[in-house]
Amino acid sequence: MTIDRREFLKVSAGAAGAVTLSGLTGCASTSVAGGKAKVVVVGAGFGGSTFARYMKAWSPNTEVTVIEPLGQFVSCPFSNTVLAGTNKMEDITMPYDYVKKAVDNWVADKVTAIDTSKRTVTTAGGKTFAYDRLVLAGGIELLYDKVQGYDAETRKTIKHAWKASPDQTGVLRQQLEAMPDGGTFVMSVPMSPYRCPPGPYERACQVATYFKKAKPRSKIIILDGNPDVASKKGLFVAAWKNHYGYGTADSMIDYRPNNMPRAVDAKKMTVGTEFDDVKGDVINVVPPMRAAAVCGMAGVRNGNNGNWCAIDYLTFESLDVPNVHILGDSALTNFPKSGSVANNTGKMCAYALSEIFAGRKPDQSPVVTNTCYSAGSDSVAFHVATVFRWDPEKKALVPPKGANGVSKEESELEMAYMDSWAKNVWADTLGLPENYNFTTKG
Amino acid sequence: MKKSIALTLLIAGTLGAAASAFASGHGDPRARFMAANCAYCHGPDGKSRGAIPSLAGLEAKYFVDQMKAFRDGSRPATVMQKHAMGYTEAEYEVMGKWFESHK
Fold first, then answer.
1. Distance separating alpha carbons of residues A307 and A193, to the nearest angstrom
2. Residue B30 touches chain A, beta carbons under 8 Å
3. What is the mean pLDDT of chain A?
4. Which of A60, A366, A420 is nearest residue B48 as measured by Cβ atoms?
């Protein structure tokens, strides 16, 4: 473990003295009184990195500390193209160097405790950091216990690949490469809400595009916990028909709704559902999930039966614990849990806090957007796009008429846009310079 | 890249120049936030990598005209009609001015 920081914050000195805080009831009166506000960000994914960069840009006096255990950023968006063999792990892996330069302190460690009354965060290395505002952007926690047999030993063989990494996405790709032609790939879709709603269906397309070229007699069985395709249904079903014979006796894809994986067995290589045991040569089960473990530590994981974090849409502050803000996949919202949303809500939270620290009221009519592409093959893609605006009556962010929808059909143009989207969201999230050499192929 | 795509992208047209819009601490914070909303597709500072057009340095009138054309469907679009329907005309103006002044 290394701690890279310009200043270690002594807890005894406290950070709160410099700032007047208003807590839960809105933030109009909060201002920085001649001192620096201290913001601690936990997690440097699409939400946390974007927040940290924009917080410094829009409120340069704010002291921003980022705590992130991973040494590099690995993108979940585009990771299905690694399964297809179009890209390699190194193509979706990028450095944190530029975010590190933008913030005051970068702590390469895991958070082990959060005390929201003292307003401190403690790491595995035993360091404690004081905050005025805590931003939790830890993504998701996977619940292996909800799937019988998904223990540490089984996890050596059966991968979720729902947090992209060499050990997950990289190993799953190797398993697919080692699978003989005529084999069966069994994959799952978790119950909504889950990270990246179209992701599993895109995964089926991307593995199928590989099989079509390299192992055309192979099959893909999709075990979906949901009653139907949960995202971009018409477009995915069309892609399965257009490219992989779906709907014919020869279909490469066997889609099974209402088939929640209840058990896995790495020796027999089976996935158990309520109905039967499904045998596969390669198995990819994404277990149920909830907001990141750090949200539990902060006592903010109280929404939706204790799975996600209820937030105030104007500031992304927890509805339960003052001065704790939750970004990205961990938040309980009506937004899809996408990279674009994490990036955009990171900016929204930075905007709200920069206004609060400047002694102003945060924007009372914010706008947040989502644009999400999925690849139906190695040459075509399609989108969903939505603008969410504050509705004072509903007290929620909802799309105005016409500001929500999907592609009419898949296209090569949208594949070019998907590739460009990835480069731009990575650049925006990580502060990559204009001459950064991207290696992805879209 | 396929020819048809290249042509579409050419029509979209881009401009570019130096100066950091991202780091700018001046002006209307709401305009700055609205403009930053565009960045995950159009690039930080509105400077795009790849096929999606850049926004940095576009003339405000051109920006507003395009948003109106996306909204009424007179300019063909993939995602942009939905985005145009999500903002008001006054917001088109604010964003257009912001991108014009940040090259």
1. 10
2. yes
3. 92
4. A420
* Nearest Cα residue in chain B from A438: B49
**Considering only CB atoms, which chain B residues are within 8 Å of A424?**
39-44, 48-50, 52
A419 phi and psi angles, rounded to 5 deg:
-60, -45
Test the A interface: residue of B48, B82, B85 with most A CBs within 10 Å: B82
Asked if residue A184 is part of any domain, the answer here is yes
- Cβ neighbors of A153 (< 8 A, separation 6 or more) are A266
What is the pLDDT averaged over residues A89-102? 98
Contact B39 A423 (CB under 8 A): no
Q: Quick one: A152 exposed, middle or buried, by C-beta within 10 A (0-12, 13-18, 19+)? A: exposed
Q: What is the pLDDT of residue A395?
A: 83
What are A236-254's pLDDT values in tens digits?
999 999 999 999 999 999 9
H/E element holding A303?
A: helix A303-306
Mean pLDDT of A8-36: 41
B34/A420 Cβ within 8 A: no
Of A351, A417, A428, the CB nearest to B43: A428
Cβ neighbours for B72, distance < 8 A, ≥ 6 positions apart: none
Domain boundary (A287, A305, A321) is at A287
In the predicted model, what is the mean pLDDT of residues A416-428? Answer: 98
Residue A348 to residue B33, Cβ atoms within 8 A: yes
Q: Note whether B82 contacts A405, CB cutoff 8 Å.
A: yes
Per-residue pLDDT, B16: 31
Question: A136: alpha, beta or left, given left = phi > 0 and alpha = psi -120 to 50?
Answer: beta
Options 2.60.60.30, 3.90.1150.10, 1.10.760.10, 3.40.50.2020; CATH of B3-101: 1.10.760.10
Q: Is residue A408 in a domain?
A: no
Question: Nearest C-alpha of chain B: how many angstroms from A361?
Answer: 12
Structure tokens at A60: 């340069």
A36 shares its domain with A114: yes
Q: Where are the beta strands (DSSP E) in A1-47?
A: 2-5, 19-20, 31-32, 38-42
Q: What ipTM is given for this predicted complex?
A: 0.89
- State pTM to two decimals: 0.90
CB pairs under 8 A between A and B: 131
Highest mean pLDDT among A29-38, A313-322, B24-33: A313-322
For B51, the closest of A385, A419, A431 (CB atoms) is A419
Chain A contact set for B47 (CB, 8 A): 434
Domain that holds residue A13: 2-142+290-361
pLDDT of residue A392: 87
Question: Cβ contact (<8 Å) for A57 and B25?
Answer: yes
**pLDDT above 70 (res A22):** no
